[in-house]
Design a protein that fits this description.
The complex is a heterodimer of chains A (about 280) and B (about 180). With about 280 residues, chain A is of the alpha+beta class. Chain A contains three helices and 15 strands. In chain A, strand 14 and strand 15 form a beta hairpin. Chain B is about 35% helix and about 10% strand. By secondary structure, chain B is α/β, with parallel strands linked by helices. The chains are: A alpha+beta (about 280), B alpha/beta (about 180).
Chain lengths: ~280, ~180
């Protein structure tokens, strides 16, 4: 009896340890203080969500990010949304880069024409950090997942060209549908927007002055008369944003982009055609 | 392609290749980000293992001269702005202390704060750092040598180099320094 009890508690300790090792906080750099990173997250969560609690949501939302990024100014993120356990539709998604000075990199609000199963975008990362992705459901519940990403210096990385070159064609857009896209049918698409997304932390290597911040603040997309998504973004979005998302196209797709210097651009794309 | 362009631009600007940047005569006044020399006359260059050894052996004063993040003025109201600076544990963060400024008041403030941090002991080891390819820490080391500090160390790999193998800690700007050197200056 006694022996089996002891064995059971050893087993329990083992399970607890395994859970601890599996927890993303422990994947931080050696010696990095997980408690400090957790405290940072609590502060952030409070700043963004107030008193609304976030719950662990690995079954609802997954974040795929490189453990070690090749280019900190261009770190690819893929967010997969599986749907809430209670069947409530997912109405929003937040991508939060804990250690960036302006941590909320993206906040999507989905409309009836969205099919938010997979979202891709590229961000800048300032320092080794946790990245949180949070799904919001229609009743306001918040599901979170987290990844630790090793990348540093992405916010101050100069673009390697003059500011004028970087701003050439600003506001140009392209929209590409994945193969097999058809009206009224859930399809993946990619939106590309030409914009340097200057974050104010990049020093112009010729003039030695900081390039003034000029970055995309909102991207709105509609198809037919229905909203696909509104995206509130910020200085953490990489230059020349490329955004992958799902939608149910209903005729033309209209995109409107606004930046922090009151730049505004709109473009209308033909939706996919029925093929015979 | 971006990298090639950045490197080509860097080369054109400073007329040097990595590993072959000559030491300027005085403080560096050029772009603060770029290839730095391999040496700082009168001081010792540390790699990560060297710094770890020095930290074990004695209690050097660690000076982080990284710049503070500046909030874009156009940021939408209500957007959380929560800058966080991570550094080598135990470091004193003096944002902007690596400036090449010839302003005598700035030089006095630098001299005064370092004297306080070293307890007036010019024999105390002092380590300067910021980020890789950052002239700020080179300048700070150069100033310390000029001020007569006998054991000046420069750690060019900076916070990013340290973080690859070691613990980093969130730090606030040194209050005494920040009061006299506001970041928006």
């Amino acid at each position: 009896m006694r022996a089996s009890l002891a064995r059971r508690s050893v087993l329990a300790a083992g399970v607890a340890l395994a859970a601890l090792i599996a927890s993303p906080m422990v994947r931080a750099a050696p010696g990095d203080d997980p408690a400090e990173r957790e405290a940072r997250w609590q502060d952030l969560a409070h700043a963004v969500f107030g008193d609304r609690a976030t719950q662990p949501g690995d079954a609802v939302i997954q974040l795929d990010a490189p453990i070690r990024a090749e280019d900190a100014a261009l770190v690819p993120m893929t967010i997969t949304l599986a749907g809430a356990p209670d069947g409530k539709p997912i109405t929003g998604m937040y991508l939060i880069i804990d250690d960036n000075p302006s941590p909320v990199a993206a906040h999507f609000t989905f409309g009836p024409a969205a099919d938010p199963r997979e979202i891709k975008l590229r961000v800048r990362i300032n320092s080794y950090t946790n990245v949180h992705a949070i799904a919001e459901t229609a009743d306001g519940a918040l599901y979170q997942t987290v990844k630790f990403v090793k990348a540093a210096g992405g916010c101050s990385a100069p673009m390697g060209m003059t500011d004028e070159e970087a701003m050439k064609g600003m506001g140009d857009m392209r929209l590409k549908f994945a193969e097999g896209a058809a009206p009224g049918k859930s399809s993946q698409a990619t939106l590309m927007v030409r914009h340097p997304n200057f974050n104010g932390m990049q020093m112009n290597q010729v003039t030695r002055f900081y390039t003034p911040a000029r970055y995309i603040q909102t991207i709105s997309m509609t198809t037919g008369d229905q909203k696909v998504f509104d995206l509130a973004s910020d200085i953490s979005l990489a230059s020349n944003p490329v955004i992958g998302f799902g939608l149910v196209p209903q005729g033309d797709v209209k995109v409107a982009v606004s930046d922090s210097e009151k730049g505004h651009w709109e473009q209308t794309f033909s939706g996919p055609q029925l093929s015979n | 392609m971006r990298h090639f362009a950045a490197i080509a631009l860097g080369l054109a600007l400073i007329g040097a290749t990595p590993g072959q940047v000559p030491e300027p005569d005085g403080l560096w006044q050029g772009p603060m980000r770029g290839y730095t020399p391999n040496t700082v006359a009168g001081g010792t260059v540390l790699d990560t293992a060297g710094l770890a050894k020095l930290l074990d052996a004695e209690k050097p004063v660690l000076i982080d001269v990284s710049l503070a993040d500046v909030k874009p003025p156009s940021m939408a109201p209500g957007t959380p702005w929560l800058p966080l600076h991570r550094s080598i544990p135990g470091a004193v963060w003096l944002p902007g202390a690596g400036a090449g400024s010839a302003d005598p008041q700035f030089s006095e403030r630098f001299k005064g704060r370092i004297a306080e941090l070293t307890g007036g002991d010019a024999g105390r080891a002092v380590v300067t750092f910021c980020h890789p390819e950052c002239w700020g820490s080179w300048n700070a080391a150069k100033r310390l040598v000029g001020l007569g500090y006998a054991h000046v160390y420069w750690y060019p790999e900076g916070m990013e180099g340290w973080q690859a193998d070691h613990e980093v800690a969130a730090v606030k700007a040194d209050p005494a320094w920040a009061a006299e050197n506001p970041p928006d200056k």
